[in-house]
């Protein structure tokens, strides 16, 4: 792989790129093609948002350690009302982690229940410390809310829970009080 970009002699910035290649990915992911124009026209294939959300849910439930960034990302997916690709999620759960080898039919109800259980055991102070540098100073007070109860509430108010575990209503406000 050859990566180059124009920079001045005084630019001492180092760019670190970490590539991870899954040689045995779970089936069920959906891909999208995107066309970009910078630095020159090219196309890139990525997972669609529901598949990415499924991967994030898998990471939240199956990592042997907790990452604050995963919880930060969960909030983003919930606020954007992204649906979970349950096919991809099911195969990922069966392949790696504490659910492997089990016959599962994960749906939104199951996911909300399992994420709520996981929220019970998180060290929220450590999770906040991990993400504080990614959040603009003026928004960092939001991290004061992070706790098990906060994430229970966000999950219960989310499209995953509120719509009787069915397809979301894109016009419904995730933070409405009804």
Summed up:
With 178 residues, this protein is mainly alpha-helical. It is built from 7 helices and 2 strands.
The strand count comes to 2
Number of domains: 1
Estimated share of beta-strand residues: 5-15%
Instruction: Please state how the strands of the largest beta sheet are arranged side by side.
Output: 1-2
Helix content: 25-40%
User: Major beta sheet, specifics?
Assistant: 2 strands, antiparallel
Number of helices: 7
What's the helix-strand series? Answer: EEHHHHHHH
Describe the global form. Answer: globular
Distance between the termini: 52 Å
Low-confidence segments, given as residue ranges, are 164-178
Gyration radius over CA: 19 Å
Q: Return the average pLDDT rounded to an integer.
A: 87
Category from helices, strands and their pairing: mainly alpha
Notable traits:
single chain; 178 residues; disordered C terminus; 7 helices; mainly alpha; two-stranded antiparallel sheet
Write the layout of secondary structure elements.
Blueprint: E1 31-36, E2 42-47, H1 49-62, H2 68-79, H3 86-95, H4 108-120, H5 124-131, H6 148-157, H7 159-162
Antiparallel strand pairs: 1-2
Helix pairs in contact: 1-2, 1-3, 2-5, 4-6
In words, what does this structure look like?
It is a single chain. The model is unreliable at 164-178 (pLDDT under 50). Helix 1 (49-62) runs antiparallel to helix 2 and helix 2 (68-79) crosses helix 5 (124-131). A hairpin with a 5-residue loop joins strand 1 and strand 2. The protein has seven helices and two strands; from the N terminus they run ββααααααα. It starts with 30 loop residues before the first strand and ends in a 16-residue tail after the last helix. The protein is globular and about 50 Å long. By secondary structure, the chain is mainly α. 40% of the residues lie in helices and 7% in strands.
